[in-house]
Fold:
Amino acid sequence: MDPHRIADDNEVIRSALINLKNVTGIPVTMYGEVAEPGKLKISHWVGLRTPALHDLLVEAGAGVGGRVLATRRPVGVSDYLRAKVITHEYDEAIRDEGLHSLVAVPVIVNRNIRGVLYSGVHSSVRLGDKVLEEVTMTARCLEQDLAIADACRSMDRGGPGKSRRVMNGAEWEQVRSTHSRLRMLANRIEDDMVREELEELCDQMVSPVRVKQTTKLSARELDVLACVALGHTNVEAAEEMGIGAETVKSYLRSVMRKLGAHTRYEAVNAARRIGALP
Structure:
């Protein structure tokens, strides 16, 4: 495997696991990558107490992850060792780690299963629909981030026998921040031609990774999202854009409705998934 890809994807996956743990409060998050046809390898983890599951190979159809790999559907069990919907080849490793409840969701990129995202607890707590929803949402975001990373690597290769250095995560975040600040700068420009040129530059920053965009967002809605992406509050966004805080709220409600998002940060992620933001 390309060493640039390993480093790049590791960073994306690790970030997804940490974010999922922080959002849900669930102590254990893991990622199993498709190591070879019909097999997963638990390659990344956060919150494991023992090495029992480190680098564990999981066969398709076996256990929770193997069933996800075979069916391409989410799987959840509230008591792993007694669950009847899965096979039990890995009970010893689960018992050694002390895991009780576990949910797993496929990560599919370009119609191929790239891996499986897990979340679990050591106590006898049932993981409800809200947790499954968050795991699923994180998997969808991870799919998009991996697809974007693939696209950037593909575009960054400079002909036969050559490859240019790919951006790391920190550099990509700098691109995102620059895009948002350019949109804010465009808001303060009174000259129509200069403002349009800045907005065109913003579009060019997005276009290299643009996917099919089925939801049309207005320029003002994108400006609000750019502010949110920078961490601005509604009041700060209003000051930046020269409009009222209630108007900012109105734009946000419109964006969230269009993107099917429940929070402002979900809206930013959704906009990135459709290629409206870098």
Remarks:
- The chain has two domains: 3-156, 169-273.
- The two ends are 26 Å apart (CA to CA).
- Confidence is low (pLDDT under 50) at residues 1-7, 158-164, 208-212.
- The longest strand covers residues 112-121.
